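Hey, resending since the last one bounced:
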Amino acid sequence: MSKPKKYSKINFKPPKEVRNAAKRGLELRKKFGRGGLTSKIAGKLGIGSGIVRATNLAKGDKLSPSTVKRMYNYFNRHQKDKRPGWSNPSNPSNGYIAWLLWGGDPGRRWATKIVKQMRKADEKSKKKK
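The structure tokens again:
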């Protein structure tokens, strides 16, 4: 993964709480057999795969700037899925499992922080030109 020089001071490695949420999402998906799209289905829809994302996050892989932006966009699109009872331990919703696959609430906070840092670097880069 190469990133633009303007992002050299940004840490694209997901923090522990994001990795843990993704691991939990993978566990729930395995247990309940649902939640999150496979890469094949997601590719047909032209969107990111929750399973692929969770695997990258759980391993602590450094992500590309475009992947972090996809995470940020995912959370903004799916915030509406958060409803009372969605995280019921005996029957979590598909949306809850998918949310965890993308890093859960910690993932949302982290992606938002990284996107803000990228925007700031983008603005600084424009001013130099």
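The helical segments are 16-32, 39-45, 50-59, 65-78, 94-101, 104-128.

Sorry for the duplicate.
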